[in-house]
Fold this protein.
Amino acid sequence: MKDVRKRARELMTGYCKVCPICNGKACAGEVPGMGGLGTGSSFMSNVSALASVRFNMRLIHGAEIPDTSTTLLGRKLSMPVLAAPIGGVSFNMGGKITEQEYCDAVLGGCVDKGVIGCCGDGVPPFIIESGFATIQALGGAGIPFIKPWEDKELYEKLDRAVATGADVVGMDIDAAGLVTLRLMGRPVGPKPLDKLKDIISHVPVKFVLKGVMTPDDAKRAVDAGAAGIVVSNHGGRVLDHTPGTAEALPAVAAAVKGQVAILVDGGVRTGGDVLKMLALGADAVMIGRPFCTAALGGLREGVGKYLDQVRGELAQAMILTGCASVADAGRDILFGA
């Protein structure tokens, strides 16, 4: 990974500094780019909120070889980790590889390691076209996320997402305020409950709604028929001064746990971070920016190396907290919980 990160730093010059700790401080306000909106506080809060969560270390137990696998939305995964939907290599990451190469690296690397990757949407069209092509080539092994466009474009893209063979599709409703899209004349926006019900009922496969930060929105997502939600503030790129997702997750989980698959992203960097999010109430975790670094710096092999690292860290954290399986990751493994 040291070589992968070095290569990524060279290729992403001017767009991402590939900092030793990816915390949003050096790239605050760099949107487009890899930073957080405005002061960057929402991005930084994601990282700091998760960093403030601490483990209870326990070693008098029999969890010597933990089982990191799980089942999510009908899919068996080697660990509860997904690659978050990110696109726009040319204007966010420097464009030294193509969008197609990026999608092939992320989604293909995830398949290699027994997890699932997501693809992003946006402008220009080749962003989503590349994701669709990769998912189709992988036999449906990926989750395409569509932005909350106005009706015609939204339904057309949802239909095409299903046509890739994917058995789960999503919408990142947290993209509703993306300034970059509005400046391009392609507005996105929030959806009232009735409209969301229509959208979800239109899709003949499982539907995941990304961008849920409150218990009331989580309940509305369940009422609308979502199979999964993602607690996410869009990487801190759409609204300044939000709480970190690790702060928002427990209340959301308390409201809808067991009714819907709960995913979360934001500030997750290591396998230890994954275990923290599980203990706070998530069923699985999405990771964003580190996959960009891995893909730019090492393509499909780089993504595989990063996932190997995360799985090793997760297993180590499970051993040191007494978790024989990911289902054992409850609040009791957290200090002061």
Notes: The longest helix spans residues 289-321.
